[in-house]
Amino acid sequence: MKKFLTSILLVALTAISSNAQLLWKISGNGLEKPSYLFGTHHVAPISVLDSVPGFNEALSSAEKVYGELIMSEAQSPAAQQLMMSAAMAPQDSTLTAVLTAAQTDSLNTMLQKYMGPMVSAAQFAPMKPAIVSTVVAMVQAQSAFPDFNQQEQLDSEIQKRGAAAGKEIGGLETMEIQCQALFGSPILEQANDLMDLVRNDGKSVEMAHRLANAYLAGDLSEMLSIIEDPTFGSSEGTERLINKRNANWVRVMAGLLPTASVLIAVGAGHLPGDKGLISLLRKEGYTVTPVEK
User: Fold this and answer.
1) How far is the C-alpha of 48 from the C-alpha of 28, rounded, in Å?
2) Nearest to 90 by CA among 4, 19, 163, 188
3) ∠ at Cα 71 (54, 125), nearest 5°?
4) pLDDT tier at 9 (50, 70, 90 boundaries)?
5) Are 278 and 271 in contact (CB under 8 A)?
6) What pTM was estimated for this model as a whole?
């Protein structure tokens, strides 16, 4: 369960406090111009950007804007088809095949709670359990942000603003790589994670609200403690969805940062911890400091 909640972060808005730690300056190590690292929340309203001290200045000064993906490409029909293909299960391992009748009944109850009485597990039958977990986790995360507009997603908005200002837009990974991270684990492991989500429905909603509050406060330490809470998933999931991707992204950044000033916007859960982007960039010799203005 934690795997999907943290990947969307990972998911009545109040202003971010003036000492929020969501925007960080990257300097030193021979860089001629500073770059910036910004943590997003994939279902937070875009009004968040107006409350982050220094964000507009960072975007204005950057020559390039990078995200996890190039969002305009990720939203294309071809990319959506690729994601749906990655989410389809082998014929002998469909959702209804790997769940018992009792588990299917429990899943139906949760799906109908969030998505209406006409929704059932049968509608997701050809898909991997991970896609169901992702959908439910997104709905739970959105309950913490009732003002969220799916047409105004934070990561997309940052790239749109960058493109409108004539900046180069790039991605740290491809859709294929992200699909592998989300849907590439063994099917039985995915089924166990899904039923974990069903059994801990109330706790996962509480966790989504805690993550939202931590994000709005810019509290990376609190976000990290939630991500690492063993109640909500395995270390293998965190390794696959966060740590390995961070290591790959830092290699991309190492080639990118010397070429231009870049604003890099990724899920805030990728920033903190020993294997987070802040620590990894420091290990590469960069100075990474919070922007307070």
Assistant:
1) 29
2) 188
3) 130
4) very low
5) yes
6) 0.89
